[in-house]
Task: structure prediction
Amino acid sequence: MSLPTPFGRLLTAMVTPFKDDLTIDWAGVEKLAAHLQSTGHDGIVVNGTTGEAPTTSDEEKLEIIKVVKRATGGKVKVVAGAGNNETSHSIEQAQMAAQAGADGLLVVTPYYNKPPQAGIEAHFRAMADATDIPVMMYDIPGRTGVPIEPDTICRLAEHKNIVALKDAKGDVASTSWVIKRSGIPVYSGDDILNLPLLSVGAVGFVSVCGHTVGARLREMLDAWFSGNSSRALAIHQELLPVYTGTFRTQGAILTKAALNLMGLPGGKVRLPLVDATQTQISQLREDLKQGGVKLN
Result:
């Protein structure tokens, strides 16, 4: 089975760097976007969980899209997170993102209010109908409290604007059946499962660790799709310390700490997240070194 790659193969969900006063570091946004572009990315996801979207205003979200578009010169796809647990506001966010120049939308399952599958399906259909730009569904029940069930995914995959699924369900068996039944292009949304999901038919990654090891994730993808599975496995095993180390606490916290260690703009986090402690940073430094990441 050869599936399309509507957003390319390698995307990273980019952090939003904040200054000490917790305003957005716009020069840092530009520098990070250029860094991701230079390490082999086909796309950048903005305004997602890793971008601390729950704490950024609608106005900030729109400006982030515009700044990343300018910084990358249209050479990578900019996919904007647009969705929360209230459908009408999610539609407004989707339409504003499209007007700001987003190339696609990442739409998460409504969270906290735990809608039934009928409500989840109606939400995604409303979002997909709201604009003409392509939609990547985002299934992450560990955060949202409710999964997108396989039957729901298969029905939604028939919508002309729903073109991909970001899978962070952590259930490779279920995802295997979804790919077989629906043919929807699946992107791994859980770095440590990048290679396992490729093995069952995923087309690429929406990574967090791409901030620090993007070039090596690109190499893994190129190896896998050229038939060199042994090289892809070797890279997977080399990166295990990075995968584990980045998520010892919330991913945005340690990704920003890692960027700061690399001399790149990570900056602060906004509450309710809290900056990494010195103990956490010391552990992270060791994890990154074990994974071959060069630090300042």
